[in-house]
């Protein structure tokens, strides 16, 4: 899957030996080394994220994806996609795991699409990827905040911190995309057919950035408070201490009258004190077993 070319006549992707600067190509980083005309351009773009020369434009944009983490569940992951556009060709360079997503979700039907339309489709898809990931993260944050009300451990708190960190990375990636598009717009002639496409993508990027940034700011204050709780480990400690206090309160309250200067039954019995101690420890043990079965001591 190193280099693939879209055959419009057949309407399907076919394997290609190298990039020919005519048509739509999907390439992995390994395939670039077999394309001398692309290697120098992409090397220059990897350092500056943007390279413009005459009618050629090369962009390196961040793309947001979702992945499953063994510890924190669904989290965000950042990849980079490099686009090399000419009036007759569009080369898309990405990791091999990203290629199926490009073919299935981003590009779609390509039979009657011009190169500038394909460029706009990929630009907008890279921008919308951040919005899609942000929506999933917000849904998870809402579920975790509801679960936190009855949770006895710190797992939910740690997941909330990680998800809010991912939202911050989405905001940074969107701002980076906006800077790249703005510089590309400045470097493109106004009469170029690509100019209105870049302008539309930049306006859409600003809209998406405002929305994701608003979501991030909304959860930032709460997450900062959660950070302090996790660092002090106060969440679990206080809940466990409260449970033990509740366990000991009832038996201790029951034996308190025997410490008062009041005539009580069996107060002169030699084994009364041992019986009361056995009662305290027995009831506490029963309550502790019940609390353990219901997860009150789970860290």
Characterization of the model:
The protein is an alpha+beta fold and 299 residues long. It has two domains: 3-232, Magnesium transport protein CorA, transmembrane region (Methane Monooxygenase Hydroxylase, Chain G, domain 1, Up-down Bundle), CATH 1.20.58.340; 235-293, no CATH class. Helix content is 59%, strand content 17%. The chain contains eight helices and seven strands. The protein has helices at residues 29-32, 36-48, 99-107, 115-148, 155-187, 195-232, 234-255, 272-293; strands spanning 3-7, 12-15, 23-27, 50-53, 56-69, 73-86, 89-93. A seven-stranded mixed sheet has the order 2-1-3-7-6-5-4, with helices on both faces. A hairpin with a 2-residue loop joins β6 (73-86) and β7 (89-93). α4 packs antiparallel against α5 and α4 runs parallel beside α6. It is elongated and about 105 Å long. The chain crosses the membrane at residues 240-259, 271-291.
Short structural description:
With 299 residues, the protein is α+β, with helices and mostly antiparallel strands.
What is the tally of helical segments?
Answer: 8
Number of strands: 7
Strand order of the largest sheet: 2-1-3-7-6-5-4
Distance between the termini: 46 Å
What name does the CATH topology of the largest domain carry?
A: Methane Monooxygenase Hydroxylase, Chain G, domain 1
User: Looking at the structure, what is the overall shape?
Assistant: elongated
SSE string, helix = H, strand = E? EEEHHEEEEHHHHHH
- Provide the CATH architecture of the largest domain: Up-down Bundle
What does the average pLDDT come to? 77
Range of helix content: 55-70%
Q: Extract low-pLDDT stretches.
A: none
What is the CATH C level class of the largest domain, in words?
A: Mainly Alpha
Largest sheet: 7 strands, mixed
Going by helix content, strand content and strand pairing, the class is: alpha+beta
Number of domains: 2
Cα Rg: 31 Å
Approximately how much beta-strand content do the residues carry? 15-25%
